[in-house]
Design a protein that fits this description.
The radius of gyration is 41 Å and the shape is rod-shaped. By secondary structure, it is α/β, with parallel strands linked by helices. It has two domains: 84 residues; 113 residues, Rossmann fold (3-Layer(aba) Sandwich), CATH 3.40.50. The chain is built from four helices and five strands; from the N terminus they run αβαββαββα. InterPro entries: MctB. Pfam families: MctB. Keywords: Coiled coil, Membrane, Transmembrane, Transmembrane helix. This is Copper transport outer membrane protein, MctB.
Length: 215
């Protein structure tokens, strides 16, 4: 016959075993969790190193490409400089309109070709002598009045060239050439413009007066 003491002893033994199991299981679980965390940290560190190495490789590649781009631009400038040499020798070119960057870039190329440049953003006329007038973006229509006055005074008419896309010029009886290329960083377009000016001015006498502008 089972006694009360036996039942109590059994219950105590069960709870004691359960407690030991919880302690042992908790210890093992904590160790397993710690191992998992360590493995995760190691994988993340490895991934970080891989990404950092790849980033360094990309930075080196970008630096190399930038260096090659700069060298390519330098070579293009030298080739353009040689290609336009003497094509506008003695010619006076007047620039109307355009932003500063575009005008400076075009002026440099014209000088490489042997020409001289005057710049004006807004003229009431075209005083003095000019072989060609380049109409850049944002030019003023005042050039027409000045040109008609000049023609009335018996001066020769310069070559008029509209430079830039989507610029409409309503010039009436005045012949206007159109050039839709871009000048900045486009060596072939710049060369084409210089050749166009050279061809358009063939047969024109070289001017004897300097261009005088009010701008």
């Amino acid at each position: 016959m089972l006694t009360t003491r036996y039942h109590l002893s059994t219950i105590v033994a069960i709870f004691f075993a359960l407690g030991i199991g919880i302690l042992v299981g908790g210890s093992l679980g904590q160790q397993w969790l710690s191992e998992r965390q360590q493995a995760l940290v190691e994988r993340l560190e490895k991934r970080y190193e891989e990404v950092r190495d790849r980033s360094r490789q990309l930075e080196k590649r970008i630096a190399l490409l930038q260096s090659e781009l700069m060298e390519g631009r330098r070579q293009n400038r030298e080739l353009l400089k040689a290609a336009v040499k003497d094509q506008l020798t003695g010619r006076r070119i007047l620039l109307l309109g355009g932003d500063r960057k575009a005008a400076e870039s075009l002026s440099e190329i014209i000088r490489w070709a042997g020409g001289s440049v005057s710049r004006a953003s807004d003229l009431a006329g075209l005083p003095g002598e000019a072989d060609a007038v380049l109409l850049l973006e944002g030019y003023s229509d005042d050039w027409k009045t000045g040109l008609m006055k000049r023609m009335g005074e018996g001066l020769s008419m310069p070559v008029i060239v509209r430079v830039g896309k989507n610029q409409n010029v309503s010039s009436g009886e005045i012949p206007v050439h159109s050039f839709d290329g871009k000048i900045d960083d486009h060596s072939l377009d710049a060369l084409e413009l210089i050749r166009m000016l050279n061809k358009s001015m063939i047969g024109k006498e070289e001017p004897v007066h300097e261009i005088q502008t009010g701008g």
